[in-house]
Amino acid sequence: MNDSEIEPTTGAPDCPDWLVGDAREEWNRIVPELDRLGVLTCVDNSVLIGHCATYGEIVATVKAGEPLKSALLGQMRAYACELGLTPAARAKLQSPKKGGNDDTEKFFQ
Protein backbone atom coordinates (compact mmCIF):
# COMPACT_ATOMS: atom_id res chain seq x y z
CA MET A 1 0.00 0.00 0.00
CA ASN A 2 1.51 3.37 -0.99
CA ASP A 3 1.11 6.71 0.82
CA SER A 4 -1.64 7.97 -1.49
CA GLU A 5 -3.82 4.98 -0.55
CA ILE A 6 -3.75 5.86 3.15
CA GLU A 7 -4.18 9.63 2.83
CA PRO A 8 -7.55 11.37 2.40
CA THR A 9 -8.39 12.91 -0.94
CA THR A 10 -7.02 16.43 -1.19
CA GLY A 11 -9.22 19.42 -1.89
CA ALA A 12 -11.58 21.74 -0.08
CA PRO A 13 -14.74 20.25 1.39
CA ASP A 14 -18.05 21.95 0.64
CA CYS A 15 -19.35 24.60 2.99
CA PRO A 16 -22.58 23.48 4.68
CA ASP A 17 -25.67 25.49 3.72
CA TRP A 18 -26.50 26.21 7.36
CA LEU A 19 -23.21 28.05 8.00
CA VAL A 20 -24.31 31.69 7.69
CA GLY A 21 -23.30 35.26 8.44
CA ASP A 22 -19.82 35.96 9.76
CA ALA A 23 -19.11 32.23 10.01
CA ARG A 24 -19.70 31.78 6.26
CA GLU A 25 -17.64 34.88 5.49
CA GLU A 26 -14.76 33.34 7.45
CA TRP A 27 -15.16 30.10 5.46
CA ASN A 28 -15.05 32.08 2.22
CA ARG A 29 -11.96 33.92 3.44
CA ILE A 30 -9.81 31.00 4.59
CA VAL A 31 -10.85 27.93 2.59
CA PRO A 32 -9.74 29.14 -0.87
CA GLU A 33 -6.31 30.05 0.46
CA LEU A 34 -5.87 26.82 2.41
CA ASP A 35 -6.97 24.92 -0.68
CA ARG A 36 -4.45 26.83 -2.79
CA LEU A 37 -1.74 25.77 -0.36
CA GLY A 38 -2.82 22.15 -0.82
CA VAL A 39 -3.36 21.43 2.87
CA LEU A 40 -7.09 20.62 2.84
CA THR A 41 -8.63 17.20 2.42
CA CYS A 42 -12.14 15.82 2.20
CA VAL A 43 -12.13 14.96 5.92
CA ASP A 44 -11.32 18.46 7.23
CA ASN A 45 -14.92 19.66 7.20
CA SER A 46 -15.56 19.41 10.94
CA VAL A 47 -12.41 21.36 11.87
CA LEU A 48 -13.26 24.05 9.31
CA ILE A 49 -16.85 24.24 10.54
CA GLY A 50 -15.69 24.42 14.17
CA HIS A 51 -13.28 27.23 13.38
CA CYS A 52 -15.80 29.22 11.35
CA ALA A 53 -18.65 28.72 13.84
CA THR A 54 -16.41 29.79 16.71
CA TYR A 55 -15.28 32.82 14.73
CA GLY A 56 -18.92 33.72 14.04
CA GLU A 57 -19.74 33.39 17.73
CA ILE A 58 -16.81 35.63 18.69
CA VAL A 59 -17.88 38.30 16.19
CA ALA A 60 -21.50 38.14 17.40
CA THR A 61 -20.33 38.49 21.01
CA VAL A 62 -18.20 41.54 20.20
CA LYS A 63 -20.97 43.14 18.09
CA ALA A 64 -23.38 42.69 21.01
CA GLY A 65 -20.95 44.47 23.31
CA GLU A 66 -20.60 41.43 25.55
CA PRO A 67 -17.31 40.35 27.10
CA LEU A 68 -15.48 37.56 25.32
CA LYS A 69 -15.31 34.25 27.11
CA SER A 70 -11.85 32.78 27.45
CA ALA A 71 -13.20 29.38 26.36
CA LEU A 72 -14.17 30.84 22.97
CA LEU A 73 -10.73 32.34 22.52
CA GLY A 74 -9.14 29.02 23.48
CA GLN A 75 -11.28 27.17 20.95
CA MET A 76 -10.39 29.71 18.27
CA ARG A 77 -6.70 29.33 19.00
CA ALA A 78 -6.93 25.52 18.88
CA TYR A 79 -8.72 25.56 15.52
CA ALA A 80 -6.32 28.16 14.16
CA CYS A 81 -3.38 25.95 15.10
CA GLU A 82 -4.97 22.87 13.52
CA LEU A 83 -5.56 24.73 10.27
CA GLY A 84 -2.21 26.52 10.11
CA LEU A 85 -3.76 29.96 10.61
CA THR A 86 -1.03 31.32 12.87
CA PRO A 87 2.60 32.02 11.92
CA ALA A 88 3.87 29.30 14.27
CA ALA A 89 1.35 26.74 13.02
CA ARG A 90 2.14 27.59 9.39
CA ALA A 91 5.81 26.89 9.99
CA LYS A 92 4.83 23.31 10.89
CA LEU A 93 2.51 22.71 7.92
CA GLN A 94 3.51 20.17 5.33
CA SER A 95 2.03 20.30 1.86
CA PRO A 96 1.20 17.03 0.18
CA LYS A 97 4.12 15.54 -1.69
CA LYS A 98 4.28 16.30 -5.37
CA GLY A 99 5.92 13.95 -7.81
CA GLY A 100 6.16 10.28 -8.54
CA ASN A 101 7.04 7.11 -6.70
CA ASP A 102 10.72 7.73 -6.07
CA ASP A 103 11.81 4.90 -3.76
CA THR A 104 14.93 6.85 -2.73
CA GLU A 105 12.76 9.65 -1.27
CA LYS A 106 12.11 7.64 1.92
CA PHE A 107 15.82 7.82 2.76
CA PHE A 108 15.89 11.61 2.66
CA GLN A 109 12.90 12.48 4.84
What does this structure look like?
The chain has 109 residues and is mainly α. The protein is 55% helix and 0% strand. The chain has helices at residues 3-6, 21-37, 45-63, 70-83, 87-92.
Order of helices and strands: HHHHH
- State mean pLDDT (0 to 100 scale): 86
Roughly how many Å is the radius of gyration? Answer: 17 Å
Uncertain runs are none
Number of strands: 0
Global outline: globular
Largest sheet: none
For the termini, the CA-CA separation is 19 Å
Q: What's the helix count?
A: 5
Percent in helix:
55-70%
What's the quick description here?
With 109 residues, the protein is an all-alpha fold. Helix content is 55%, strand content 0%. The chain contains five helices and no strands.
Architecture blueprint of SSEs:
Elements: H1 3-6, H2 21-37, H3 45-63, H4 70-83, H5 87-92
Helix pairs in contact: 2-3, 3-4
Quick tags:
109 residues, mainly alpha
